[in-house]
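Regression report. Comparing outputs from two consecutive submissions.

Submission 1:
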Amino acid sequence: MLVPLDLPPGFYRNGTDLQSSGRWRDGNLVRWRDGAMQPIGGWRERSVAAMPLVPRSARAWRDNSGDQWLAVGSFDALEVFRASGDNFDLTPTDLAEGLKDANQNTGFGGGFYGAGNYGVPTIPSGTFQEATTWSLDNWGQNLVACSTEDGRLLEWDLVTTEKAAAIDNAPTGNLGLMVTEERFLFALGAGGNPRKVQWSDREANTVWTPTATNEAGDLELQTNGQIMAGTRVRGQALIVTTIDAHTATYQPGGLFVYGFERVGTSCGLISRQAIVSIDEGAFWMGRGGFFTYQGGAVQEIPCDVSDYVFRRINSAQESKIWAVENPEFNEIWWFYPNGTECDEYVCYNYRDQFWTTGILPRTAGVPRGVYPNPVWFGADGTVYDHEVGINHNGSSPFCETGPISVGNGDFTFSALMLIPDELTQGDVRAVFKTRFHPNDVERDYGPYQMHNPTSVRFSGRQVRMRVETERLSDWRVGTMRLQVNKRGRR
């Protein structure tokens, strides 16, 4: 009999190995498009100077003349790159020095309830201090920026011989900023109050004192959380705290300028850079789950890999987690630290609603748009163009299924032949791993280089298939079929 290995796209990595039966479970650097598995695009170094410090935040934009700019913030510096490859240091001479790594309080009162062993004393080690990140946005063609450590609202007017300068009259001690669709500059966590939103007059980012003749104002959110980030969504500003989410809607001619509404609870943001906004809405990573706001109320996104991802995150460095959209493939990528820096990713395809995971060390980046390709940064400051060619810098894309059974696992079987479904036959090879019981010792068979058909020889009650390649190839894999004979119950 022929058993089609017709598995839905994406990974399932929750619970036990057997729970991923009939699904893809593990892999790296792969995606699905039009139902076929393929490697993600490769990358190449850009011919620009590397950032001297670990990049933490990035923003790309075009000025009024069409020139391309790329701003990058690290814990202790703010730089800007031109498309020509020139880079300029915008760091104010009096910028408050930030933290490259987070400092975690592992003593009493630090961490989460239930962590550690009851009755075992802990040694206090200070309060938690997050790794320094930046809020970056545009006020027209100018760059506006705020470092979480420095707290001032800075502006840079494209004069490459000048540094970014503090905006006159703006509040200090802020946690971030954003520019609304109506051209108000929002200071988030304004003046050292972690729940306060303060905004300038419309089209006037140096006017912050409310009067009868302007629209400057402020409001303290009714929340127990701390404001983490703000982003533009269709017709509104979305502000997410550590525990909930609020919208700000412009009310022209109204008494309060902006109307605020809580649109989600228990949906706090895990880090300040872990949110993106696209046409479909805003998407972000929380502590233990993923969320989206598409108007109305915040919704939790069902995630087939949440167990795997949240167990691997180094919670002491979670403030470094960042997100970026990849609109060409309908994807949102979150990069998170398993070690000290962000070295792994989880990716969500929001159109087809499936998840993939993998290993790729990147600490900041911008999507395709201003530049022809996504531009992402390595921890050493190297700048990469992504989705370019098929060279993965020595890493080999692969994908592996969960256990596949014949007859619901009631029978053992012998496999005799594999009928491949490939675009570039011979570029991909298969390895099979069999067991007779879920926790049995696994036996490997292969690798088998693909032919049409491919002779194989193995037996078991359940089998996993690994698809891998050692060639540089833009391969595609569809529905493989396995010829098997039942051997009876065991």
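Submission 2:
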Amino acid sequence: MKVIILAGGLGTRISEESHLRPKPMIEIGERPILWHILKGFSAFGFNEFIICCGYKGYVIKEYIADYYLHGSDVTFDFTDGGRTIVHSNMSEPWKVTVVDTGLNTQTGGRLKRIAPYVNGERFMLTYGDGVSNIDLNALLKQHEGSGSTVTLTAIQPSGRYGVLDLDEDKNCVIGFREKAKEDSNWINAGFMVMEPEIFEYLDGDGCILEREPLERLSADRKLGVYRHRGFWKCMDTQRDKVALEALWNNGDAPWKVWE
């Protein structure tokens, strides 16, 4: 099954890094977050990827093209016509298609553009800036028996700020506590399974997948949900990057589901 990765946005909220490279190429533990996403899907047996590029997409193309070169020992033999010998130290069962889906194209438009690569088959979709320890096989199994056109993963994010317990009658604070996940609403975490019928809901480069298409599917009762209560984090800001890197460097990265 193919996995579509939306990786073309401008990444303006993490501009400290994204002015140099696209957000999916920002590194966590000296590896782009895109690599972490690929490794996560591959751990569940999903090894065919279509990456929807836009902003600085050439950086992603060059990284994929030189993947083995960057991770291997290399001999440059100038005595034999400039021969290059790559002593491969790594092996990945991946097939990666990198597609330029436009600089200003919205998420639904990017998905619409890669329809020919899907070949009318069921596929998965995620964003190029989020990591999780979601059980992808369980997500797929739920989708297969649901009759939904799309099944999306929902999570309850932990609050960034503490919570005040108030006595409304006396207008006073009666306690402090950390905001629990149970205090939060469910949000879309990406990691979706889609049937090819989704393309009937998409229209043009300006189409925002999370707006009209998913809203119409919801109204048609064709939008399923898989509730994930484990780890999930989106690298939206520099603060998020620092937090993810700390987990990785401490050997405590929950999204590392591969050996």
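Expected: both submissions complete independently.
Actual: both completed, but the second showed a warning that disappeared on reload.
Relevant detail on submission 2: The radius of gyration is 21 Å.
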